[in-house]
Specification:
Layout (H helix, E strand, L loop, with lengths): L2 E2 L1 E4 L1 H5 L9 H14 L3 E5 L5 H13 L4 E7 L2 H11 L4 E9 L2 H8 L3 H15 L6 E6 L6 H13 L4 E6 L6 H14 L7 E6 L6 H10 L4 E4 L13 H10 L1 H4 L2 E2 L7 H12 L20 H9 L20 E2 L4 H11 L6 H17 L3 E2 H12 L8 E9 L7 E8 L2 E8 L3 H13 L4 E9 L8 E9 L2 E9 L2 H31 L4
Parallel strand pairs: 1-10, 2-3, 2-9, 3-4, 4-5, 5-6, 6-7, 7-8, 8-9
Antiparallel strand pairs: 11-12, 13-14, 14-15, 16-17, 17-18
The structure holds 3-methyl-2-oxobutanoic acid (KIV) and zinc ion.
């Protein structure tokens, strides 16, 4: 009999927790709409009690994204659970996911609690969460390093307390597939009421085994996989959604009647959306969604694939929505294609948005003979996610002198909160000189943590996409910029990150002041 494996997507919670992957509320909402189109079963939209940003993103997603269960993480404490419930209140279907660590090392050193107290806390948390929803998930954090009898006991008791899903996380990515399969099988055999719940797994990729462990768990009785788009997540990441879903679909001989409801044709689009939003691209050889995932370079392979695709392709690229041809656009075909592209990408837009982006498209088409699909995508994201955001820093103009016989020198004129400022600086390259001039004009000390630049298409007049991660005081932010000019793309990315950091920093200062005055 066909049996469903539930796909629990935690891109917006575990994924977003990883450095360099933070998203604004609007970006999270866009991702959540796309995850709903991908037809995941559950979207873990954040950890409501962790920050005001998380709370409002979960609330907005609960209000707007329908046809999917929206979930918030909560520690096994009443306050966290109440905040999660409040954020999820407008959701069509809601789940509270509460957790506590069950391994000796976590209980002793992190929680400083006895196993008996952990058990009591877990039971209380689950039954308290049931006051707000009938869908309550309980996770035994660090399950793979927990003592098995204790694990069986806490699972049995939390099911009695009302848990409907029990999650077994390999929190530190320590388990081997065989060992993890054995753990799942033993839970199935040793917890008397396990048939009352869905058994879930949540694997981290520290040893590169998150996908293998998740799939092995499914073969031993797990029926929910927690995973993320592109495998993003804490440290080395989580099991990647595209890998687990495509493995179950592709290896019918092994997974037999198991299936997921994921619309696999939306996989590539979802992966790209996440890359664009976070500015962090997957490596070219990444399974399923990497640029080279379906590229055949060697003559023998090319000949084979042309004769019969199955010689070297186990997945039809179309099944994951992988674009096999790049649409090339000219100035005249642009407007219609642009509308179609916005619709396809699921971006909510007005006619005004379309007009504005179309102007940018025409400017690009003037600079560049061929405008590719990727260029349009970049234009849309570049424009869309910046519109309406507060931008304390606006670059009015910059000029750079560079060459192999002069010291690169840049002059920048910018506006900081309406006040005009100018500065000149030298640097060890044109980008360095321009960034230094901006820093000088603003008289700030950001620390650049990461800078990368990538050509979007393989031609010398290609659009360049730059990504910057920086730290301003204690605030970390990332930004992106796209232009045919690498210096302009880099400046835009830097200023985008800077603006996000300034806005966040001001928010933190305001919040701390309000806390001190006792108004929050
Ligand atoms: O890795 C982990 O243990 C987690 C839990 C909160 C499920 O992310
Ligand atoms: Zn995790």
């Amino acid at each position: 009999m066909a049996e469903k494996v539930y796909i629990f997507d935690t891109t917006l919670r575990d994924g977003e927790q990883a450095p360099g992957f933070s998203m604004t509320t609007e970006e999270k909402l866009q991702m959540a709409h796309q995850l709903a189109r991908l037809k995941v079963d559950i979207i873990e939209a954040g950890f409501a009690a962790a920050s005001k940003g998380d709370y409002s993103a979960i609330r907005l997603i609960s209000e707007e994204v329908k046809g999917v269960t929206v979930c918030s993480l909560a520690r096994a404490v009443e306050k966290d659970i109440e905040i999660a419930a409040s954020a999820l209140e407008p959701a069509e279907r809601k789940r509270i996911h509460t957790f506590i660590a069950t391994s000796e090392i976590h209980m002793k050193y992190k929680l400083k609690m006895s196993p008996e107290d952990v058990l009591e806390r877990a039971k209380k948390a689950v039954s308290f969460a049931r006051n707000f929803t009938d869908d309550v998930e309980f996770s035994c954090e660090d399950a793979t390093r927990s003592q098995r009898d204790f694990l069986y006991k806490i699972i049995e008791e939390t099911i009695k307390a009302g848990a409907t899903v029990i999650n077994i996380p390999d929190t530190v990515g320590y388990a081997m597939p065989e060992e993890f399969g054995d753990l799942i099988e033993n839970i199935m055999n040793n917890v008397p009421n396990i048939d009352k719940v869905i058994l879930s797994v949540h694997c981290h990729d520290d040893l590169g085994l998150a996908t293998a462990n998740s799939l092995t768990a499914v073969l031993h009785g797990a029926r929910q996989i927690e995973c993320t788009i592109n495998g993003i997540g804490e440290r080395a990441g989580n099991a990647s959604l595209e890998e687990v879903v495509m493995a179950i679909k592709t290896r019918k001989d092994i997974f037999k009647d198991l299936y997921t409801d994921v619309n696999t044709k939306e996989i590539y689009k979802t992966s790209r959306l996440l890359c664009r939003i976070t500015g962090s691209f997957v490596q070219p050889n990444k399974a399923i969604v990497g640029d080279n995932a379906f590229a055949h370079e060697s003559g023998i392979h090319q000949h084979g694939v042309l004769s019969h695709p199955l010689t070297y392709e186990i997945i039809n690229p179309e099944d994951v929505g992988f674009p096999m041809s790049r649409i090339v656009l000219g100035k005249h075909s642009g407007r219609h294609a642009l509308r179609k592209k916005l619709e396809e990408m699921g971006v909510r837009f007005t006619e005004e948005d379309l007009d504005r982006i179309f102007e940018k498209f025409k400017a690009l088409a003037d600079k560049k003979k061929e405008v590719y699909d990727e260029d349009i995508e970049a234009l849309i994201y570049e424009d869309f996610f910046k519109t309406g955001e507060e931008e304390p820093v606006k670059v009015i103009h910059f000029q750079v002198q560079s060459g192999d016989a002069i010291v690169p020198t840049a002059t920048v004129k910018l506006e900081y909160k309406g006040e005009e400022r100018t500065a000149t600086s030298t640097g060890n390259g044109p980008v360095d000189a321009t960034i230094k001039a901006i820093i000088k004009a603003l008289d700030i000390k950001p620390r650049l943590l990461d800078y990368s630049i990538k050509a979007l298409t393989p031609d010398t007049e290609a659009m360049a996409e730059a990504r910057v991660v920086l730290e301003l005081g204690e605030v970390k932010a990332s930004g992106r910029g796209t232009d045919t000019d690498v210096i302009k793309a880099s400046v835009d990315a830097f200023v985008d990150a800077l603006n996000r950091a300034i806005v966040r920093k001001e928010y933190i200062i305001k919040r701390n002041m309000a806390k001190r005055e006792g108004t929050v």
